[in-house]
Design brief:
Layout: H1 3-25, H2 39-57, H3 62-79, H4 90-120
């Protein structure tokens, strides 16, 4: 991976972490929404982007990225119990964890495909 791709992935990954933390812990009326997407889709995509970007940025740390993003999903969902307008639910944590798993898997597959293309040329 080149330096520019890595920098972009780092910026996307850490920005996603900040947006996710805000969206998860802010009062429900302040939470951003994707048009025409339900909350489960939003949760899944958010953690897919987070984990996928960080797994792309730090390819030698993918296992750690997976553990940390799953831990973040569970931790933030639990922290919602501290905000009166929010509620932490196991279902939501599971959707977020599945997004994190899919994000890391996507990064692994894209890396594998790019290596195969480089070898073919």
């Amino acid at each position: 991976m080149n330096r520019t791709t890595r920098r972009i992935a780092i910026a996307i990954g850490w920005s996603a972490a900040l947006v996710i933390a805000f969206a998860t812990l802010a009062p429900v009326g302040s939470r951003p929404h994707l048009p025409d997407a339900g909350p489960d889709i939003e949760r899944f995509i958010a953690f897919l982007v987070l984990a996928g970007a960080l797994a792309t940025a730090y390819p030698r740390r993918r296992g750690m990225i997976l553990v940390l993003t799953v831990g973040l999903a569970i931790g933030l969902e639990s922290a919602q119990l501290l905000e009166p307008t929010r509620h932490g639910r196991p279902h939501d944590a599971i959707i977020k964890c599945l997004g994190a798993i899919a994000g890391v898997a996507f990064a692994v597959v894209m890396d594998w495909l790019s290596r195969g293309l480089r070898r073919a040329h």
